[in-house]
Fold these 2 entries.
Entry 1:
Amino acid sequence: MLLTITTTHQPATDLGYLLHKHPERVQTFSLNFGQAHVFYPEASEQLCTAALLLDVDLVHLVRGRDKSVALEQYVNDRPYVASSFLSVALSDVFGTALNGHCKFRPELVNTLLPLKAHLAVIPCRDDVVTLQSLFEPLGYTVTMEPHALDEQYPEWGMSPYYSVTFEATCRLSDLLSHIYVLIPVLDNAKHYWIGDEEVEKLLKRGQGWLEKHPQRNLITRRYLRNRGSLVRSTLARLLPEEAIDQEEETEEEKSPFPQESQELQESQKSQELHGNPHEQRLIAVMEILQQSNAHSVLDLGCGEGKLLKLLLENSTFERILGLDVSYRALEHASRRLRLERLPENQRKRITLQHGSLTYRDKRLEGYDAATVVEVIEHLDEPRLAAFERVLFEFARPATVVITTPNAEYNSKFALLHAGQFRHEDHRFEWTRQQFQDWVARVAGRYGYTVRYQPVGPQDDEVGALSQMGIFSRQS
Ligand code: SAH
């Protein structure tokens, strides 16, 4: 992982004073995840570049954490990409500059300098948040160069990694603070636990700019890894004058990126062998719907509309309704389905509805089938009873398909600690026994028969990635 900072401010070697690192020396610092080296590839009066090279020691990181050491803990992108390790290194190695202090040339602290920061490798995997949307509002000119998947085989196409340059005339402490906060937001895979002190760090590093940033809610949410109460208290402190609409915030939080983190890695691993696990899941659901002879389907917690798209492509499904609590997810779904461009006869087959599946809604009545794919684990357990009534007592479709992670399979995820969930927003993850107990109880209470089906890659001992309960209404 390499960060360089260049200035053409005259004399350019002032950068050495500001960073508190002498341009003529190579210095090495031990950090708890490896080593950081600081050196100056160029240091003249006209141009000075300081480099921070991180040597992330994965072997050291993995050791002592988990007994089941798997290859991907050693072979992953962490050593190369700009991630939260960079933020930790910035505060450990350039802490004085980050805090806006300069012992020998205090006047430099508030001097606006022509600065250029270059990061050798940044992962840009999702379209939800872009590098430009994070840095440009702060006055940076952003240049991105994609890396090929493999330089020798250009036909393999481009990778999700970019080398990036940000340029602005600003204070060095601002540049460092922006990188400190925004790189982990972009990477979205913070490597340590989020606690109260992260709120303080965010408020400190975000001082003077975060409250004005158009993406401040997203930045706060992602920086704090969607920890709802921390996000709310931080936003309240950032914007003491503004009333924060708690409802809206909770909804936003609930628009997760369903295939994030562990599952995404699993998906990348097993893609060639079995196809993407989430696709496998959706195809399994489609098959059940077809066998059940359903012509109208509710997709509850439809997210970004992957299943809706499959349903729409199949003309047996004449009436489709997708419901989600996250408005943002519905906007994605609408784009994915190209609702605005659909011809009228197709358009009228589908409805997207903003709502919660823990509240009774008359519009959910009169459908043949309902699917609830990887959603129940996002509901607070005490709200499950409300959901059961909404679906099985009031909407009461003939077929209900519910899938949820199989917690037993989590032991196959090398990077997941015991007891940790696959996704930040999950409120619980059930073993096969726990799921079947719940399903059997609900089926018994509301007059449904039920069968189970494993979904996704399977293991003899711990079962499949996901589990599915298929409910059929008794006549
Ligand atoms: N079924 C989709 C999305 C799964 S992610 C898929 O398989 O791709 C879980 C979804 O449940 C999210 O989109 C989230 O916004 C939604 N969700 C969480 N709580 C909800 C609630 N109370 N009512 C409706 N949707 C909810």
Note: The pocket of S-adenosyl-L-homocysteine is lined by residues 254-256, 258, 301-303, 306, 323-326, 329, 356-358, 373-375, 378-379 (CB under 6 Å).
Entry 2:
Amino acid sequence: MDDTKKINPSKGLVGEIFIPGDKSISHRSVMFSSLGNKPVRITNFLNAQDCMSTVACMRALGIEIEQIGSNELIVHGKGIHGLIEPENVIDSGNSGTTLRLMMGILAPQPFLSTFTGDASLRKRPMGRVIKPLSQMGAKIIARQNSKYLPLTIEPVDKISSIEYKMPMASAQVKSAILLAGMYGDGETIVTEPYTSRDHTERMLETFGVTLRKIGTSIGIKKVEHFESPESIEVPGDISSAAFWLVAASIIPNSNLTLKNVGINPTRTGIIEVLLSMGADIHIVNERFSGKEPVADLVVKSAELKGVEFGAEIMPRLIDEIPVITVAAMFAKGRTIITGAGELRVKETDRLNAITTEFNKFNHCITGTEDGLIIEGPVALKSSQCYSYHDHRIAMALAVAGAAGAGVSIEKASCVNISYPDFYATLDKIGK
Ligand code: S3P
């Protein structure tokens, strides 16, 4: 099957876009509703491959999930002790969030579960989750001395609480520890070097769970039951909106309104960096969707300049580095990104993918051990680039091609992981 997508240069992006549901929040809405005590209606659910991996996983664990139309689910939770032993190996596909959060939920269970995933997920490090969960008494065995998928979680009859200092900022690791901590005997406290996205904490509170926050530490005590809300409305994903924020900024004659975007402060690093580069972005119509802040974003073309940022802001824009690189290629002056070593263990080694593929447009990026140096602005040549089967690399390449002289993307359909309508949306708003 030909999986190549050709993107033409654009003369401007104009219109209004409804941003699809947040991937992180969609995963959590299904997981926590499954552990709840009554049915939950989830609206604006992200119907994309990653989140459907979570749905399939919960179904394999005995949860009935009805799908209504394309973006609505009803999850019939069975309580925090209601999951049952899966009959088969569970496939997490490409989704690190499915796998790592489910490890936290399943580590304390009195039954056996085995996970695998696609070629990308089988290369990603699992030791970062296995280590703290094992300290809590979980019994997890994994390939290559507990590093990689496939992995098996053996039954246990008890989990202990721990105090754990994470070596890296990671919402997936933090969430796995907090979720296992709900089954512990005392208080589990997890500390991060910098605060990563806090959707787990906010949604646990929606389900009646009390957490203790002290700086970058979170404490959770044994949870007796989840008090489900009637419904959860998933905000639009700022990580999907990010492609339009950058595209409209760098393509002249653009004026876009991005409707219903989550602006949780643990995710808004992209807006801060683009504003500091000189972008014309306005946040309007601010409101709340449950415990998550939401707004519409208005973005117009602007002259950008280079910027420097590093480890401190990194967890708040970790998934946006590929598209920020594109902004930097169009910005005047040097952009220096440090503290981005975590990009080496995403869906692909994104630092390598960026330096290899984006330099095909015109050599302007130098990779470092934990970051990138981009010398802008450069004129982009029409190029043939490879996505590495990574959805965010494919979409960032598309933005570069639309803003430059076009691009042909090999293995382009991976956008289905997080944004199935991405190319159709680009066609709709492009001039
Ligand atoms: C996610 C956390 C981040 C992010 C991923 C989604 C989550 O990963 O990159 O796309 O939903 O918790 P890490 O926790 O590994 O940084």
Note: The pocket of shikimate-3-phosphate is lined by residues 24, 97, 170-172, 175, 196-197, 318-319, 342 (CB under 6 Å).
